[in-house]
Amino acid sequence: MSAIRLDGLLAKLKDPDQDLRAMAASDILDALKGTTNQLSSSEGETCTAALVKLLSDTQSHVQNLAMECLGQVVQLLEPETLRNTITSICTGIQQRGRDASNTALSVGLRVMIGRIALAIEDPSVLGSLAAPLVAVLQGSSELAADVMVDIFSSLSDMITHAGAQIAADAANVEQIQHLLLGVIGNGNITIRRRAIAVLGDFVVSVPGRHSDEALSTIFERYMTCTKDSDKCILLRVLVTITRQCPGRVAALIPTIVERELGATEDSEREVRVTLLLVFETFVRYCADIVAAKRDDICAAAASAVRFDPNYNYDDDDDGMDTSSDGDMDDEFGDDDGADDAYDDDQDDSWDVRLSGVKLLASLAKCGLYQPHEVVSTIGSLLVERFKEREDVVRAEVIFAYAIVADTLKAQGTGCAGGAADVLQRQAPRVVAAALAAIKSYPKSTETKQLAFAVFARLVSVNASMLDDSLANILPLVTSALDAEDTSGALQTASTSLVKTNLKLDVLALLRALTACSEISAAAKEFFAVAKDGIRKNVASKTLQVPAAAFDAATGLVVLLRGAAGSASGDIAQFVPWAEEMARCAVPLAAADDHALRASVLGFIGTLLQKFGDSIGAPVSEELLKTLTSAGGSASDTQLVLGAVVRAIAQPTALPRDQVLAVAAGALQQAYPLLSQDSAAASTAALEAVKALAGYGADALGERGEDIVRSIVAIISRAPDSPPVAALQALAAVCPSVSVQCMQGIAAELLAQLAAATVYGRQSAAAIDRLFQIVGAEFPDVVDSWKGEIVANWQRAFEQYAQQCRAAGSEAIQMQFPGSGLDSAAKSINALQTGLYKARAQEWSSEYLSSLMREAPEADDDIALTCLGLRALGYAAAGGSLAHSPALAEQLQEHVGSKHDSVRGEAAAALGKYVGSHPALFAALFSGATAAGSTGAGAGGQSMLQAVKEAVDMIVGANRDRASAGPMWEQITAFAQGSQGPIADALAQSLATFALAFPEKYVPLLAARAASGDGSTDVKAFYITAFRAVLADKQRRPECDAELKGALAAVLGSIDDSDVEIRRLGLLALFTTIQGKPELAEGVIGAVGPALFRRTAIDESLVRMVSMGPFKKRVDDGLEARKAAFQCVHALVRALPSAVDCDAVADSVVRGIPDEYEIRLLVLQIVNESLPRLSGVYEARLDALADAIERAQALKLPTKPVRQEIEKHTATLKATTTLLAALGPAARSAPTPSAKFNALLESAAGDGSAR
């Protein structure tokens, strides 16, 4: 922006004509937006002075333009100019006092500060602007409330974005602290609220002593105040801080809760509301800290929601009138003048009840209650209050109950603790209470909407949840759906919108009711009436309603068809409705509204698929004609093709002759999209082609070969792996084309697919299916295709082998291309499967065996052998391989190969082969244990891996109970007689038995693990197997039930005399806590004392080892102790309410001077547990200080190596970090610890505390 142009525009700002001033300001704004050139100091001063003066203009629109200009110009000004401008505005505000024009100045100030906070990268510039604002606020007695609020908002932006810079100015930060602590008691509630928020920002965002002092002052004032108004103010400040940074006040929360919980019910209204807000905030942001008081907090909320001293409710819930007759049918008018509701202008108890409801909602969401407890405790309280007379409170009550239902919806169908059953029993009361509330307050449409939202959530947990109540809900449903779109000239736009929302909520409930597999008798009766309301609303002229009605109709069609074979499956009464819905859908299939058109087309496709043989032939033919003749853009055609696919894809109720009659029209729509570059368009066309191909060559007509070539072209255009939809469509179409056509495209298609068979993991399943069909339909091409696949795999393996040699390692540096081998093997097997089908032959391993080379050495031979072995493994897993002693011998030979890749593939193939023939397991196990009973030697390990593969298949996959018994006996007999460590592969095999048949093998495994019989190695073997069961993330609920009863016996090994057994027992406990904390919760009381004993150093396990002239301290108990501390950390994180707080703190004291690995775990324990155990740590500050001093006093050796220096440095950093973490506890301790504070000051002095 040129100086000349700027001067000219600024001069026009003084023009007497307001329009010219406005135009000039607008031009300046455009100019400022269009430049990034910085203004010189003089230009900036001139520009801002003129704009600040314009804030006092007599015309508001000119003032607004001036504000926008000031906000835009900040990024073009020098810092000094910014400071002068802000000072000038603040001076103007101070001089004008309560003058009305001050509002424009304060808003301009707020706009500038807000823009500076976002646009200026250097926060020190923003921090330097605080002084003039503080000066104005200190003399604020003459300022209007809205002006002060603007200034506080500006100060909030400064503190939030430049807190560190403000803290650096000692005088300024002290003034801000003093100002905020004084103004939070302002008599104006608007100012007070804003000041409270700013004080919270100050404590959270300004580091250092002053924010700590501010927090301490707030808390001290709270603890000593005698006025209720002061208490409310101070507590609201703490609430603000908690919401922004919960850790800042974590140490104070237990004191506040303990002090206030008992006084809540007897407090005055304002105090009670504040305390409920405090508890709600603590529950939401610091649930773990208040977990021990959850029931007391819930009781306070329950008392609050019942608090209504000015009104007498009828508390006989059992006598609720659940009928919905009478007024309800026609009360959809304006909500104004609801004269049936109690009205008392002097009644202000409603906000107590509202706060109580919000607290209950927070308790429902915070996780302190199990789902069944949420329903039985919190849900029951809320249902009781559906009768609330105040609209705003009643809405919050019903909304809170929706949250309760959501907690179960999030759990899915397996709600823990029988929560779904509890909700099922409670549902009739919920419906009765909701209907009673609606009848009492019939003009409250919000109550109706929320009631339907709750009903929908109940149904989403269990589709039959409302079956017993549907008859009572039905009148309300019909009255809502029957309401007219308009009610004459007196109908307001807002009332129409409310009614529309209610209809959408009702239709959403109907849609939820249809989302089940079968229809109950009650639901059938319900829909026999409700269907007419759906029909009426598809003709609605109101936005979204017709689409929602068609969606509900679609769900109902699916539900009815699914129930056609059940006891309540006579759906004849719904056929006329379905035909009428079809006639309504035809003209709307080309609707302008995209959402409506999509819903209509979805309905048509579903209706044809489910009712194609029930509705009259003329109706279905008209619907098909609508689909196959619809025109429009490519996106419209995609929607239509989606409906076509839904209608004709098998299985469908449409007769074959009707599909064939419209096949040509459908292909005419789909075929042009095959050549489009749009992936969405081509996919829609491919799905349509695939669906039509299911009807054979008759459906494709003369276009079959053209379609094949188009699909191959799509595959050729794909930049990466072939599109799955294209492969599926090609597999569907191939049987309908000639051999000559396939021969013509075979070379091009193979060129595109050969690489994908090795590298295309995403499309592997689709390729396999295509290859099976190709093998079955065109066996002459199989040999050439297999050769190309083999060649591609050999090239991939050769590249891997070369990289390994270049890296100097055969396997460590490079990753074996297992996914490529996987795809290639599956493709080979698919072709073979198709070939044998075409020749009507049994599956043979001859070809795959021919791939394997005896003692392979060259890369090509190793690649072929691996491919043959992997393919044989898949064939065996699929049950395709007959018993062949020669094949078994060949596999066993390769298990002994010197090449890791061959050996691993052979072990997997042998295991799967034996898995398909369980009678061979005994011989396999005998050979494996003879070769590597202790897991020694590569061949022995591979044989044991083959055993594991066989167990996984026989026991894990096939659940062969008859074979499992002898196999278990064979493995355990070997283990009992073992004289050394037993391979982990066998331990994992035993775990498979327990996971497959938990009722039998979990107790057996636990008994072996807990038994004192056998050697240490044997006991370690069984504990390892038990831990493998605990670590499995896919285990079934019945397995958990058995583990729950067996866990305590196994975890008794924590107290074993052998340190290795103790370590394994501790790891089992850690695995339990990590995976399923609820399993550990029942035993932690019994094993807890032993666990915490294991956090102490066992001096009997410490020994000195001579290393030449040096001696080294070796602690054989370190690994077990580390496992113990891992358990403690997992406990305080996953089960904080179950741990012994004193024991945790004592273990922290013990662990601080321990080894570096232990110290890191201790730091994690402190960070996790400090909010909950602050008081416990406060009582041990001296002991903690002694432990930290001992850790810091550790000396380096005389001539340390680099690792020792790094470890020592890390130790010092860790102790300093511990000091910082425990700092809040030290500052809030009732009795300060001189030792700990001295350590803190020392760390702060050398800068390490930062």
Low-confidence stretches: 315-345, 413-417, 487-493
What's the number of helices? 60
What is the typical, i.e. mean, pLDDT?
Answer: 85
Q: How are the strands of the biggest sheet laid out side by side? A: 1-2
Helix content: over 70%
Radius of gyration: 39 Å
Overall strand count: 2
Biggest beta sheet summary: 2 strands, antiparallel
Strand content: under 5%
Q: Which labels suit this protein?
A:
single chain, 1250 residues, mainly alpha, two-stranded antiparallel sheet, 60 helices, 2 strands, globular
Which SSEs are present, and which pair or pack?
Blueprint: H1 3-12, H2 18-33, H3 41-54, H4 60-73, H5 79-96, H6 102-119, H7 123-127, H8 130-138, H9 145-168, H10 170-183, H11 189-205, H12 209-224, H13 228-244, H14 246-249, H15 253-260, H16 269-285, H17 294-305, H18 350-365, H19 371-384, H20 391-411, H21 419-440, H22 445-461, H23 470-482, H24 493-513, H25 521-537, H26 545-562, H27 575-588, H28 594-611, H29 617-629, H30 634-648, H31 656-670, H32 679-693, H33 697-700, H34 704-717, H35 724-733, H36 739-753, H37 756-759, H38 764-777, H39 782-807, H40 818-838, H41 846-851, H42 859-877, H43 885-895, H44 900-915, H45 921-932, H46 938-957, H47 961-976, H48 984-996, H49 998-1010, H50 1016-1031, H51 1037-1051, H52 1059-1075, H53 1077-1081, H54 1084-1093, E1 1102-1107, E2 1110-1115, H55 1118-1134, H56 1141-1151, H57 1156-1178, H58 1181-1192, H59 1202-1228, H60 1234-1245
Antiparallel strand pairs: 1-2
Helix pairs in contact: 1-2, 1-3, 2-4, 3-4, 3-5, 4-6, 5-6, 5-8, 6-9, 8-9, 8-10, 9-11, 10-11, 10-12, 11-12, 11-13, 12-13, 13-16, 16-18, 17-18, 18-19, 18-20, 19-20, 19-21, 20-22, 21-22, 22-24, 23-25, 24-26, 25-26, 26-28, 27-28, 27-29, 28-30, 29-31, 30-31, 30-32, 31-32, 32-35, 34-35, ...
Pfam families: TIP120
GO biological process, one term: SCF complex assembly
Domain TATA-binding protein interacting (TIP20): 1084-1241
